[in-house]
Amino acid sequence: MIREDILRLALAADIREDEAVDGLRRVATTLGAPLEAVDHEIAAMVRDGLLHDPIRIPEGALKCHWRLEPTPKGAALAAQGG
Questions:
Q1: Which residues, listed in sequence order, are joined to residue 51 by a DSSP beta bridge?
Q2: What's the Cα-to-Cα distance from 79 to each of 44, 47, 48, rounded to whole Å?
Q3: In this structure, what are the phi and psi dihedrals at residue 29, rounded to the nearest 5 degrees?
Q4: pTM of the complete model
Q5: pLDDT at residue 82 in the model
Q6: Which of 2, 8, 28, 74 could disulfide-pair with 38, CB 3.0 to 4.6 Å?
Q7: Interval 23-50: pLDDT, tens
């Protein structure tokens, strides 16, 4: 169930944070889920091709940031309801 909740959140919300732990905390708080479970599930979803790697270094940036963003496969699955 947490997977579906994370996918829906990734599709519906623009979650970006300067630090990875802040991004994970924001997702965990929003979903009312344990931080460790969110961290583990996001890693699994990246591995499964449902989310882009949340740690990004945008072009021209001096440091990385954390962003929750579905891949096209993840967005299609979220749009179908899970």
A1: 70
A2: 19, 20, 17
A3: -65, -45
A4: 0.89
A5: 60
A6: 28
A7: 999 999 999 999 999 999 999 999 999 9
